[in-house]
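Section: Multi-chain targets

For targets with more than one molecule, the full set of components is provided together so that the structure can be written out for the assembly as a whole rather than chain by chain. Components appear in the order listed by the source. The example entry contains two components.
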Amino acid sequence: MSSFFAFANDPVLAARRRGFLKSSSGLLLTGTAIAMLSGREALAAGKAKGHDAEGDVRILNTALGAEQEAIAAYQVGAESGLLQKPVLDLAVTFQGHHKEHAAVLAKTIEKLGGKPVAPKAKYTFPVEKLKTQNDVLGFAASLEKGAVSAYLGAIPVFHDRDLAKAAGSILGDEAMHWAILRNALGEPPVPAAFVS
Amino acid sequence: MQRAGAVLLAAALASGAAAAAPRGDAKKGEEIYSRCLACHALAYDRTGPRHCGLFGRKAGSVPGFAYSEAMKHSKIVWNAKTLDRFIADPMKTVPGTAMGYAGVKDPRERADLIAYLEAANQGPECKGVK
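Its structure, encoded as tokens over all components, is:
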């Protein structure tokens, strides 16, 4: 398993992790994410109007709420004391991805004229069931699998197909998280040819 | 001949009824429920409301949960039939719902999912949770 997580020792990732530990607000947006946002300029300028944009904002806000919860869940995992390196580093890396997703979603919602939902003051997690590293990994895997399904279910209902594409980009990332977490648990990382 | 016709009619009705409401398999439904876990849990609220206490509950009525106006005013009471309709196409069934999801299109999968939710509501995780 340790060789599978060798990338967690990457110095660039390590720098990101240090940044995470100092502050949770330091986000790095990838080129893809920025491109997604720039694609929203046309949308904000009036490509999607009325009910179409309103509906898309609603979908984006639900996704944002789920991303914020995922960030909080990884925080609980990271602070649980149950995760050992390099798994801890992996959790922090994945949390960073969710922060990037949330940042892009929030900015896109604003560009569409909506108001991004704020993170909840408190989240409920089944902490009483998280006794071991594998418990935490299993919980994270269930959230990531759910996220894959949620984005899969959202893609067909976006009015703006660019947003559907952006959701597909996030889905791919969440699917990789799910696969790696399954692998860390000793389960077949990719259990089927299709996700649902 | 008349009797044979009656038998055929009865068989057709039975098959029609089965197609409309297939009997669900709770075990298979548990796997389908894993698709819901980005937003839902049985015993506590998340991005979506909890599912313990779901059957017989008026939609939009879990105390403290921030529902869409559409769900609050939907006048739905959750049971196997209303759930089946909603899960098939949430955004069409309740326009304006926050559940931006295309739906579970396979009637068999919906039946399994509902069977799981019914079983889970009788199970230990939902004990004492409304």
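Residues 2-20 of chain B form the longest helix (19 residues).
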